[in-house]
Amino acid sequence: MTTAFTTAPTAIPAAPRTRWRGTGFGTQVLVLTQRSLRALVSDPRMIVFSVLQPLVMLTLFSQIFSSIANTPGFPQGVAYIDFLMPAILVNTAMQAALQAGVGLVTDMKNGVLARFRSLPIRLGSVLVARSLSDLVRTAAQLLLMLLFAVLVFGFAPAGGIAGTAAALALALAVGWGLGWIFLAIASWLRNAELMQTVGFLAMFPLMFASSAYVPVSGLPGWLQAVAEVNPLTYAVDAARALALAHPVTGVVGALGTTTVLAAVGWVLAVRGFRRPLSP
Amino acid sequence: MNDFMIEATDVGKAFGAQKALDGVSVAVPRGTVLGLLGHNGAGKTTLVNVLTTMLPPDSGSARVAGFDVVGQAHQVRSRIGLTGQFAAVDEQLSGLDNLVLIARLLGAGPREARARAAELLELFGLRDAAKRPSRTYSGGMRRRLDLAASLVGHPEVIFLDEPTTGLDPASRLGLWEIVQGLVTDGTTVLLTTQYLDEADRLADSITVLAAGRVVASGTSAELKAQVGQRTVTVTMATAADATTALGALERAGMHPVHDAAHHALTAPVTSSRELAVVVRALDEVGLEAAELALGEPTLDDVYLTLAQHAA
Questions:
Q1: ipTM metric
Q2: pLDDT under 70: residue ranges of chain A
Q3: Contacts from A154-161 at CB under 8 Å and sequence distance 24+?
Q4: Cα–Cα distance for residue pair B218/B34, rounded to 1 Å
Q5: In this complex, which of B45, B88, B173 lies closest to A115 when CB atoms are compared?
Q6: Is A267 within a domain?
Q7: Cβ contact (<8 Å) for B171 and A5?
Q8: Membrane-spanning residues where (chain A) (predicted)?
Q9: Is A17 within 8 Å of chain B by CB?
Q10: A31 touches chain B (CB under 8 A)
């Protein structure tokens, strides 16, 4: 790199002819969300790769466990794919929530966050922007998965498009709320590997000890007890009820829990995020 | 309000038991450059972090552009530019998008932001690379983009933390010219550096930090005078000889600095008669210098003498 600066120093228009006086929280969030989405648009492979894992799960489970549909306790007249898909949506949204945390840690390694701290902006806007752009990314991911499920596995739940859309929205909402918890963890831990480990340890058992893949009544006794108190069971049940046009009970509970998670996560995340970057 | 654009009073900052800053005071008049010299770990970056509102001081106070860095951090942030040791740019975004982003966050409309970004890219010789992701930039280009990013909001005070580390000589000269241009236009600059020629060339006054304390401050000329008129450098044939010679010279009342890599010892002297002291001291331990040189003081001597002795 030998290119020198091109202009003589006297050409610098440094006099503050128009000093910008900062901008509102809304604009900050908008500009920062656009920034994150721009990275996504410039490299859409990220979305494609991020759906690979859930697609593999979808393929394996729909084939391996399809005989579960014939067992007693399984809802009558429901295809396994229709039973499975809402759970996959919730699961994928959970993974995406974890990714929001990992993304924040990665962002903290990116030098630009240091610059944001030296600007007259509210740091909370960086977190909100992260959360919003992840919501968009997750929505794209879930739509891609749904498309795949419909085309390849014949996903056609009784709830139709409206029910599926409602299940999708619920999964997104739950994932978004949980995302704030991971944003909080990320802003305190600040370590991507640790985040992945914590996330995996938390999510993997939660996913399986729930109603996600088999009806709770089909689980061994002790696991049933776990599944009964597992909040994920309620999220999955609610999404499934919406998609299958069953009587819906858990939606308010799921959204309420999500709101609480988001609120707690927000408070902790902002506090953690404000701590200086260097020790 | 007096016309100090940077004013730190007795600033202290500790990380655990480690005192990074131990009562540091600096004052920088408007439109001047303060050069902050010191080893790694002397506290330069910590002071910059305190002055740029990144870190709250444990004790003392600091005002930048007339505003308190703790109580009025927002006002300070809207008047400063910061270029740290690591390029604070978004590697995913192009150079253009990086600068537009900063301008938008500072309150510029989309068109204003683009105009300002284009202006700075031109100035920093990045126009041709404007639309490329900044991760494809060379180290030098990235640092220039970083400096451009810190200038987006027409800051009144600019903090440059080792801005030319890792730059090739041409880019370094270019950056110096830019800084001089900014100062001509009334911007105040605080520059940390390990390069003495950089401080000598750019700084109106120099503060030397060692172990979190100010060990000297003044103009380059004052500091040189403070350290003494001349230095003597003794180069020995082997490392062992150099170590022996170090002891001998210290017993003779001198305070040499040991450059182990070159088996060389450098000490300030007040008159050429002290050359005889050196020769006698070496003679007593049965050594002969491979090379004996009398040097006029440079800022390097100032730095070595002050920083190394205090550390």
A1: 0.80
A2: 1-18, 278-279
A3: A154/A79, A154/A81, A155/A81, A155/A82, A155/A85, A156/A79, A156/A82, A157/A82, A157/A85, A157/A86, A157/A243, A157/A244, A157/A245, A158/A78, A158/A82, A158/A243, A158/A244, A158/A245, A159/A242, A159/A243, A159/A244, A159/A245, A160/A245
A4: 10
A5: B88
A6: yes
A7: yes
A8: 46-65, 77-98, 139-159, 165-186, 198-223, 243-269
A9: yes
A10: yes
> How much of chain B exceeds pLDDT 70, in percent?
94
B55–A278 CB contact, under 8 Å:
yes
For residue A207, what is the DSSP state? H
Do the beta carbons of residue A101 and residue A185 sit within 8 Å?
yes
- A10: in domain: no
Each residue's pLDDT tens digit, B35-47: 998 888 889 999 9
Set out the domains of chain B in order of their start, with CATH numbers. Answer: 4-220 (3.40.50.300), 230-295 (3.30.70.100)
Q: Contact at 8 Å (CB) between B33 and B203?
A: yes
Alpha carbon of B146: minimum distance to chain A alpha carbons (Å): 9
In single-letter form, the type of residue at position A134 comes to D
Q: Measure the CA–CA gap between B11 and B144, rounded to whole angstroms.
A: 31
Could you tell me if residue A118 is inside a domain?
A: yes
Q: Which tokens hold the place of B149?
A: 């990013």
Name every residue whose Cβ is closer than 8 Å to that of residue A189 and which is 6 or more positions away in sequence: A105, A195, A198
Number of domains in chain A: 1
Task: Give the one of A5, A6, A114 whose C-beta lies nearest to B84's C-beta.
Answer: A114
Residue range B225-241, pLDDT digits in tens: 776 567 788 899 898 99
Its domain, for residue A236, covers 26-39+47-70+84-274
Q: Which secondary structure element, helix H or strand E, spans residue A55, and what is its range? A: helix A45-64
- Within 8 A of A276 by CB-CB distance, chain B residues are 49, 54-55
Q: For residue B91, which residues of chain A lie inside 8 Å, CB to CB?
A: 110-111
Test A112 with B89 for CB contact under 8 angstroms. Answer: yes
Residue among A118, A128, A130, A273 with most chain B CBs within 10 A, to mutate: A118
B125: left (phi over 0), alpha (psi -120 to 50) or beta: left
A45 at B interface, C-beta within 8 A: no
Q: Cβ distance A68 to A80 under 8 Å?
A: yes
